[in-house]
Structure formats: C-alpha cells, structure tokens
Amino acid sequence: MKEALLVLADGTTFEGEAIGADAPDGISAGEVVFNTVLTGYQEVITDPSYAGQIVTFTYPHIGNYGVTDLDCESRRPFCRGVIVRDLARRRSNWRSDADLEAFMQAHGLAGIAGVDTRRLTRHIRDAGAMAGAFGIADERALKAAATAEPGTSGVDLVATVTTDQPYTVGDGPLRVVAYDFGIKRTILRHLGTLATVEVVPASTPAAEVLARDPQGVFLSNGPGDPEQVPYAVDAINGLLGEVPIFGICLGHQLLSLAIGAQTEKLAFGHHGGNHPVRRLSTGAVEITSQNHNFAVVADTLAGKAEMTHVNLNDGVCEGFRVLDAPAFSVQHHPEAGPGPHDASYLFGMFVELMHAS
Amino acid sequence: MPRRDDIESILLIGSGPIVIGQACEFDYSGTQACRVLRQEGYRVILANSNPATIMTDPEFADATYVEPLDVDILTQIIEREHPDAVLPTLGGQTALNLAMALHARGVIGVPGTPEMIGANAEAIATAEDREQFKIAMQEIGLSVPASGIAHNMDEAREVIQRIGLPVVIRPAFILGGKGTGIASTRDELERAAQYGLDASPISEILLERSIAGWKEFELEVMRDRADNCVVVCSIENLDPMGVHTGDSITVAPAQTLSDVEYQLMRDAAFACIRRVGVETGGSNVQFALNPANGDMVIIEMNPRVSRSSALASKATGFPIAKIAARLAVGYTLDEIPNDITKKTPASFEPVIDYVVTKVPRWAFEKFPGTKGVLGTSMQSVGEAMAIGRTFPESLQKALRSLEHGRRGLNCDPAEALFDEMTDEELVTCAAIATPDRPFQLEAALRRGITIERLYEATRVDPWFLDQISQIIDERAHLAAVGIAALSRADWRRAKRLGFADAQLAWLWGVDEDQVRATRSAHGVVATFKTVDTCAAEFEAATPYHYSTYEDDDEVVASSKPKVIILGSGPNRIGQGIEFDYCCVHAAFALHEAGFETIMVNCNPETVSTDYDTSDRLYFEPITYEDVLNVIEVERRSGDLRGVVVSLGGQTPLKLAGLLSPELVLGTSAASIDLAEDRDRWNDLCARLEIPQPAGGTASTAEQALAIVERIGYPALVRPSYVLGGRAMEIVYDDDSLRAAMSELAGFGTLGREGGLSAERPVLVDRFLEDATEVDVDAIRDRTGDVLIGAVMEHVEEAGVHSGDSACAIPPYSLSAETIAVIEGHTRAIADALEVIGLVNVQYAVKGNQVFVIEANPRASRTVPFVAKATGVPLVKAAARVMVGATLLELRDEGLLPEPVTGHVAVKEAVLPFNRFPDADSVLGPEMRSTGEVMGIDRTFGLAFAKSQMAAGDRLPTGGMVFLSVADRDKETAIGAAHKFTDLGFTIAATAGTAEFLEGHGVPVATVVAKLGEATGVDAVDLIASGKVNLVINSPRGRGARADGAHIRAAAEQHSIPCLTTAAAGVAAAEGMADWARHELRVRTLQEYHRGATDQLELPL
Ligand SMILES: Nc1ncnc2c1ncn2[C@@H]1O[C@H](COP(=O)(O)OP(=O)(O)O)[C@@H](O)[C@H]1O
Ligand SMILES: Nc1ncnc2c1ncn2[C@@H]1O[C@H](COP(=O)(O)OP(=O)(O)O)[C@@H](O)[C@H]1O
Ligand SMILES: [Mg+2]
Ligand SMILES: [Mg+2]
Predict the structure, then answer these.
(1) Residue of chain A with shortest Cα separation from B346
(2) Which H or E run contains A176?
C-alpha cells in the first residue's frame, strides 16, 4: 500500500492511498467534482463528459461488482482520476469480467482511496468545484500542480474527446446524424434502435451534416464549458430550422447558445442519479441522471425558446423547446447509463419530431 | 395537488401489541402519521390496543381508542365517530386485515361509508392474495417463482411433476408461518406437504419452486396521486433467499448490483406498485436474483409501510410514514419539502454516503424445543441497526449493538465457540442459517477456509465474505503488532473496520480504558457525520449523526443546556417498546423544559430514533465506548448537564457505574447498585423490616443445596443481572436444583446472559406458592416526596413472570390495608435507595403478608400502562424530577394531574407461541411475552374480557370449557367452574379435575381420558374436534412433554383460547359474566382521562 495525498488548490489536504495506475511523477491533476450515484461507477468513469475532471464518489464502496465491457460509455476513461473511500478488494457479480482496479491500471487511470470523501464533498459544496492534485508525490509538488491546473473553464475539452472520423452505428428505420462532443454509448444504443446513426466529429460544419440528408440531428453530451466550442454553435445555427434537433447536456447548452441564450457555471454542478426534474407540460416529476457544471440561464431563453423542464432542487433550466424551429434539448440524461429510466420518453419525442417534419 | 378538503376526519388503525413480525416500527409510523394529519388540520381518530405506544398518548390524536383491534369493536368506533376516511396502511398487517374485514362487512370503502385512503380494497387484495399477485405480475411481464396449489397429497405430487423440486410449502390461512417449510427430496415433500396440509385450517397449501440461495433484495418505493414514483432505499440481504428478510442481516444500499441490474429492478418495482394499484404511499417490493445469470423474480409486495420502510427511513433520513400520510390526504411528492435539507422537495431519491447494517436478535433460548434454525417465517424479536462508512464498520457496530454478549464479529471470549469443530463440521453448520452464522463464517475464514468453499455452502455473496475477511486480516495484524507498536495508520484502519476498544482490549489482554487512552494519544478519535438524504450535496438542517473514524466532525455547538438520553437498544423479550416510550417522553418533557435533548439509540424501529423526537439524534450502539464518544463530543460543543440512564431499561442502567457520577441524572449509580447487589439489598430490607422470601446467594451447586437445606423447597433459582427472568427456574428437588446450577455454570464460561460466576452468583429463594403478585410504580423527588403511580394487582400468581401476567389497576381483590402496607413499603424503599426519579417495586402477597421480591430504581415495563390507565404522565414528571424539579413544583405547573378513577384497566401479555409450535405455552418465571395490550372498561370483568380480545383470545359467550388443573389450583378452579355453569357453559375435565369439581357440586358433562389411553376421547382429540371453546390448563407434571403440554399445543394449533393458570380462569369467568350482562362499549382515552366515564351508568 502506497500512501498518497490529495491537495486542493486552496491548500486543503486529504490523506489516502494510491490505487489504480501509477501517474507520471506521482501526480494527477484536474478539477475535483463529486458524483452521488450509488451504482454506476464504471459508466461515470468512462463518460467523456468528465474529461479534465477528477471524480469523487460519495458512496464509500466502489468496485463491488467489478467492470464489464458492456458498461463502458466510451473507448476509455477520460477523467483525470478517481477518489474513493474504499476500493473493493474483491468484486462479485455475474456480469463482471474484471476488477475496477485492474481496469484503471489497464487504462492508465490513477486514483486515491481511503479519503474522507464526505469531508471533501462538503468542502467542494461550500467552496465550489476547484482544481486539485493527488498522488504519491510530496505535498508541495501536489499543491503546485493543483494551482497550475486550469480547471474546465476557458479550455476546449470537446476537442480532446470527440471522434476523429465519422462512423455509423444502429439499424433503426430513421436517419440521424449525431454530433460527438463526447457521446456516451448508451445514447448511441438508444438512437441506434430508432435510426441509423452517423456519428460525426464535433467540428463538422452544418453543410457537411446537411449533405448527409439526415431526418434529425442529435447534439451529444460532452465535457466542459460550452462557450469554448464556438464552432459547434456555428454549426447548430446552420442546422436550426433545416432539420429536427435534439440535444442532451452539453448539446443542450450549445443549442441554447445557438439561439442566443446564455450559459453559466454552477458552483459545483449536478452530478448524480437522483435529481427531481419537473416536466412542465404534464407536471410530472422525473428522477434524472445528471452530470454538468454549466447550465443554461433560464431568463435568457425569453422570446427564443420555451422552458420545458426545470430542476426542482434549485430551479436550474433542465430543458427547452425552440420557438421557431423543430429543436429541443434537455440538460439531464434521459439515456441513463447510469441512472433511472424515467426520462427515456424523450427519445420517442425526437422520433415524433422527425416524423412531424 | 393540494390537501384534500373533502375529508375532515380520519380513522387510523394501529397494529396492536408487539408480536414477532410487527414491532415498534408501527408505533413509529403511526406516531408520524398522527402528527402530520393533525398538523394538516384533520380530526384524527386512532384505534390501537397497545398502551405502550407513543401514538396512543392522548395528545397525539383527537380521539384515542385503546380498545381491542377487532372488527366488531372497530365497527362500533366507526358508528360512533363517523370518520370520513380510514387509513389502513400504517398499522402493519393487522390494520390491512382489519380494513379488509371491515370492507367485506360493508362498513368502509363502499359508497356511503368512510373512504379507504392510502390503498383501497382491490389493491390490498391484489398484493395480499398470493395467487392474484402472481397473475398480476405475470400480466406486466415480471417473473415469479413457478407454483401450484394443492388440497391433498395427490394434488401436491401433481404440482411437483410440473414445477419440480425443491419447493417452498406455505399453508393457507395460517398464523405466523406455522407449517411452512422447504422440501428438497421426494421424502421431504411427503412429510412437509402433509404437515402443511394439516397446519392449514382449510387444508390448502401453496407449493412454490424454491429459489433458496438466490440473492434477496428489497426496494422501498413511494407513489403519489400524480403517479410520481421514487425509490427511497434499496436493501440487500446478506442471507440469501430462504431466510426471511426479517431474520436476515440486511444492508443498505444494495452492494452487489450493477447499475444496469438495479435500474431494471427499479423499473419492475414501479410497474408492480402501479399494477397493484397502491394509489399513494409507501410499499415494499421484494426481489430475488439468480447470482449465476441475473434472472430476476418478484417475491412479494407489501402495500403499506413495514419494518423495512422504518429501516429505510432511519437509514436514509427520508421519513416514509410521514410522507405517506401526507400523500394519503392528497399532496404530491413535489409539494412536500425534504425535512432534512429544508430546501429541496421530497420528490427525489435519497443517496447515502455510508453503509447501514441491520442484524436481528432472536430469543430461541427462551423457547426450549425450538430448533433455532432460520427459515421462511420470521422468528426474531428485535433488531439493531448500525451506520458506518463501510460495511465492516457497520457490521461490527451492529453486532455490538445487539447486546447478545458479543463485542463485535470476533476478539471476544466467544470467538472460540467453534474451535472444537473440524473444517468440515464448521462449513456444514454455517450452511444452515442460524443466529450463529455470522460468527461461523468468521471462524471459518479465520482458519483459512476459502471464500469459494463458504460461498458454495452458504450462498452468502463473496463480496460480503471478503469484507468479513478484511476484519479477520486486521485482527491478525493487530494481534501481531500489539498495542505498543501500533502506528496511527494502524489505529485508524482498525477503527475504520469497526473494532471496538473492548475487542482490542480483549485481543491484547489490556484494560479498555488503556486502549482508549493509547488510541486517543495517536489522535484517532471518533468523528460524527450526518445522515442527510443527499450524501452532503446539500446542507443538512437536521442533526442526525453517527460515529466513524474520519477527518472531521459535523456536530455543531449550541448554547442551551443539554441532556443525553440513553435508549434501550434492540427489542428483546423483557425490554421493548415500553422503554422506548419512556425515553421519548423524557425527550418531550425535557425539551419543553428548555433543554436540548440528545437521544442515543440503535433500534431502527422506534420512535426514539426518529430525528423529530429529540433535538439531536445519535444512531449509535449503547456501549461504554460509544456512549463516551457522544458524551465527549457533546461536552466539546456545549453545556452538557447529564445523562439519563434509567429510562431505557437494563441496557443504559448497566453503564451507570461506568460514567462519571456527576453525569448520571436522577438516582445515583451507587443506589442502582444497592438494589442489584443481593447482600446489600437484603440488609436494607432487614433494616426497613420489610419481609422478603427466605433465600441466599450461591456460586456453586453445593452452596445452593445448603441454602435449600435452610429454606426448603420449592425454590426459585435466578441469575443476577439478567432481564426478563432469563434462565430463571422453579425447582422442587435436589436433582433439578443441580441441573439448573450446572446449566448456569455453562453459560458463564461463554459469557452468555445469566452466566454464573463468582461476581455474578445465583439467587436461591424460597418460592412462594399461591401468592398474589403486585407491582408498584412510583416517583421520588430530591426532597423525599413520593408519588405512587399505581398499585397493580396481577391476575396470575407469583411465579408467573410479571411481564407475562395480566394485571389490573386498581387492584381488584387486595384489601385497603394491604394496599396501604404496600404503599408504605414502597415509600420506605424509595427513600432508603435515595431514588430520584422512577422506581418499580414488586411484591408477593401471601395471605395478609406482604413480601418484597425486588426493587428497580428505573422505569419499568408497566409505566406506560399506568400512565394510560390513570392519566398521569409519569415519565414526563420523572424526567423533570431527575433534572431537579420537585413533585410540588410539577403539581403547580399542572404537569401532575390527580389520577382518574371510575374505571378498570387491565394489561394482558401477548405471547409468541404461534411462532414456536414446538415450545410449551405454559407460563413461568422466565418472561416470554413480546408485547401487551390494555382493556379498559367499567368493571374488572369487562376490562379483562377486552384485554383477552385485544390479545387475540376472544372469550367465548357459550359452549364448552375444558378444565385440567394442578392439585394446588383445584380449589381456585371451583369458583371459576361454578361461574361457567351459571353462564350456561358445559364443563369438560380430565379425570382428577372432574372428580374434584363434581365433589364440590359442579356438574361435569364430559370426562376425558388420559392421553394415549386406549379407551375414550382424549383431551387433544376433544380440542381437535372443535367442541371446546376455552381451555384452562395449569401445569403439574414437570416432565418435558407431560399431558398438559400436549393440551396446550393442541389449543394453540386450533386457536382455542387457552389460559394456563386457574387464576386467569377465574378472571375469565368474571369477564364472561359481566359481558353476558353488558355489551362491550367503546370509549376514548380522552373521555376516561376527563372522568367523563362518570356519566356512564355503572350498573354493577
Ligand atoms: N420461492 C422461494 N424460494 C425460497 N425462498 C423463498 C421463496 N419465496 C420466499 N422465500 C423466502 O421466504 C421469505 C418470506 O417470504 P415472503 O413471501 O416475503 O413472505 P412474508 O409475507 O412472510 O414476508 C422471503 O424473505 C424469502 O427469503
Ligand atoms: N420468591 C418468589 N416466590 C414466588 N415467585 C417469585 C419469587 N421471586 C420471584 N418470583 C416470580 O418471578 C418473577 C421474576 O422475578 P423477578 O425477580 O421480578 O425477575 P426480573 O428481574 O426478571 O423481573 C416475578 O415476576 C415473580 O412472579
Ligand atoms: Mg416478505
Ligand atoms: Mg421483575
């Protein structure tokens, strides 16, 4: 067992021990966020939206049921590290084919275990998401790395996770082009049952997409600050009104920028699988999977879009419908993976929209 | 959707007495519901026969009926109160069944009658009828275990052709799981199916494909009127399918489910609650999962709050019952705020950042003849829950919370229990689920038996086994390194795995205080975290804490003077809801008096562990170490005035001597010891000239024999420092005395309760035959003023444990002089013990002589009953007295009204024999009841009749009474028999009893043969024939299975009321006589307490 330390940019330290892969120089740095899911660690770790971030799991036992290729949300983990209270020594589940720790080692992902993750979570909750560094290096080196870490504002993280080549998945009856800003496989599985999905790189211009003659365009989830992906906003502008659009998470934020609304960074974001969201058209409450640090400023939608979903915990805009174009989007994750299936009807709405146009 | 305005009054049905499978959790849910509904402005009418509940406190409802939970009685209540709605989903199975019966009668749930809210009759039927449920689930695409119904052996064999072996067999219409079993072979099937058919009154069994060994899970779900559904908590059973969830070690949240599997289960649970049609409220859905391939089947759903929902509420901080009550009156989840965060709505799914483990507690030792094997019907009597950051920590905390003589999973004397076994034997033993299983797993892993092998044998998931083995690895490391060389990291790791200082002390052979001191010197001290429903995502407004060993502490400082109240731990026979009631009352009273109240307890069922009850809640084991941790943190964060140790029964009382004397509020530790220490107590009685039964103390059989030489037989042998008469025995000769002593010596070496050792000698007393037992509860204040709460006369004679006998307020046969003597003795004893607070004194009255049996300077089991009977809030007063108030001051404050008279209240015990068909139902000095009920009416007879009805034994109004009593009871039986004949009953009796009765002019219609005699109908046949309506049978033989035992077993099996003492027979006769002349009438407790009953005609 190798003792390790986590140091936040504000100097707060946490004791623990190193797990997973050995990091270069014994240092892993990134923006520290927490996720409150009780199950679904593998999906979280492999979700490209966590690019640039170190994920803290608030649930203490992580790794209990191992990992399986089936639950990977992308080709590899894009997060910078994993912080847990306790890493399972032994996994147990018929679906699993490897240990979480072996998986982390195989993908060069370092982690730290034994941390008082509740103290860390409370700290982030109060002070806001902040940069941090962990590893077996000494405290000074870690502090320096944490301070030097730019965080997720002001950098284009999408470019680091998007596919470089278009590819096609699914065999559903419709034709959809999906922008990969860091797309999750669970989304592709959903879309794939509805459509033949051509996945294109984030930088694909509108014209190229329209040339593929899709019945609908999907804007995927992805990491970081939507304002750092202006090329995507431009592309969406070119698509609005031309073709039905459905966006999730970062896709939702980009759509909002495209219609002239604004986004902002939340103090510590929404990361979990238990957020109540009201669907305003019916009043129903759906329990949703969430993973974002940025959000659409609801007021700025006025005259451009109608808010369709709202987070009941803090009033954050969770979804809107564009007024003068067939386009809608949600902030939460109707595809789940991990999380509840309550909002999966949204894929059906996308189909309806495509049929209607 | 807002609150419903079309209803104004709501009848809430409680769950009645505490029985196995239905315990304090329904007081917790009912109390929450009452509170909420009244806050919402509804008129709340409550029916519950259990006087020891908080919910039946008169201030919790507008009209409180402490009346039998019986269809006739409830119909009367409904006719009297005309409620607009009936809420049946918060009072357990009892309330559901009653609601269905009322519905069948057309009294509720049909047009023109009160509406059923929460769940309607159709939903209840769909969930409760196993066949209907299976069909409904298949309709929505969920799998259920294959099954079939059989009415005879041929049909049973046919079903097996179709579904295959092994099968679970469940008889229809049985009580408490009798006749259920698992059959794996043809032979077993023949036996088990026949047994099941015999057990079922309609000769019907359900044969269901057994999936024993699959993983078992539960989801607690809620649904509102707008069809919003949430899962509050997932629970994984450590013990696989085949062991009832109530008897399993359970863990929240589920540990070994991937998200993919969990979400499928969640979808299935919602589909289930929607199909069953539970409109609003909480439901419990049980699933089984094949560990080999993830196949999932649904086992059952309970359309109501349950034991598991109480656990889920305590485990997450999400108050299911409270919210269910709001949903029932029209609110939707998103309209209800989350209590803990205050900012977010209740329409979310709690997430936690700790692990919760519940471990049941059993009482097999009290029921000789039972096998002690766990199965598909629940047998545990209580449970402890613990919160830790990891599973090992919470498991070890839960095990020490159980107070079953273990300090954790290992590192105590009993860890050697299985040393003699071979590996093979140990694995074989562990394969059979028993209370010992966790310790057998530990022992097996400690000797290096592999996880794979244990998993094969037990089907306990390898993840759990590996977690357990981390405790074992740490034990080895700790033993090897030793206390002196342990590093800070070592200390931290050990504590994080849940090791108690007491375990480490044993491991290293040092003193517990030394462990604490050394550990603290390394800076490793308990830190307290918060239960907040959201894993710290939002700030928590509710101080609900648990200890762990982490970096920082979340307890905030406060300025009010503080009092810690120590709870009573898991329910057990002898210490149950009554003590929780006392702790809760103290919390209320001290809060009102301006104190900040701090509750410490580990029983998830209770009202005391509701974070709404006290100002702060620590969900912690009640051990020296854990209590000290709370004291330290509370001292750090404010002005701690003291600790209440005398309201939670024996559990906190045992700690009194270990705490700093100035912290113990009320009666001092020294006085407590004085009452427990036999020699000093004898001296005290002698000084006060209060007679005691002759006796002495013995540590060996020889000493015991020498005492008996002096005092004569019969003698009562009782261990000191036990609860509920544990291991207490009446002996009539040298052989049985020797046997009793050697049994106790055996307990001693294992550290078991009642164990004999030099420090814990056995008391050998002359047994007073045919004496009337009397209980007194009193309060003494610091000025020496004494308030007698009540003098209670027992129905059964001394020798039947006070907890198992019926008793009446006011006394119904004692003379005024005797009562005066008893009151005088009580004052003298309270003074001599310098009691400040409550004291309970027990007496045996023989002829005119009053003997004192024991005094307990603490709250007793009867305190809530006294309060309900007299209208005097004894515990509230006592709590104030303990923090310095005088009785005079309390009278001035109006807190001590005069006791009301003009009615009689009878408390009756409720015994769990239907769960233990192999145990004899005769009463004795070892307590075996799990709960109690109260009957209240104008006369003793009527109150007694009600108490019997409430306890589940409706006295007959005509027919045949069967008498068979011991010689010493024959005299008493005559009176009863005369009354029965006067009432028009015919009498049947065994030969000896018959002869005696006829000799005294009682006509005996039927004389039955001795069991097994060739000629004539024997007693068991007669009872089985259904001709007998009441059995009165007192034991005479002392053989293991004397005739009497068979008679009582037959009565139990055929659900014929059976009284096991002649005294109870007399009381029953009196009850039946009064009942024959006067209808049973219902009145509210509020009316009784107002004295409104004076206006009732009292014709007797
Ligand atoms: N088909 C089965 N095979 C094996 N065990 C079963 C089966 N069905 C139920 N059990 C076990 O019996 C217990 C009690 O069954 P359940 O249907 O939940 O009845 P109850 O109403 O008493 O809770 C369950 O907790 C489970 O462990
Ligand atoms: N000397 C005695 N003669 C007859 N009965 C006795 C005597 N001592 C105790 N008992 C009976 O045994 C029961 C249990 O004894 P007690 O000392 O009260 O134990 P516990 O502490 O468990 O309440 C009493 O309720 C009483 O019925
Ligand atoms: Mg069940
Ligand atoms: Mg007693």
Answers:
(1) A276
(2) strand A174-180
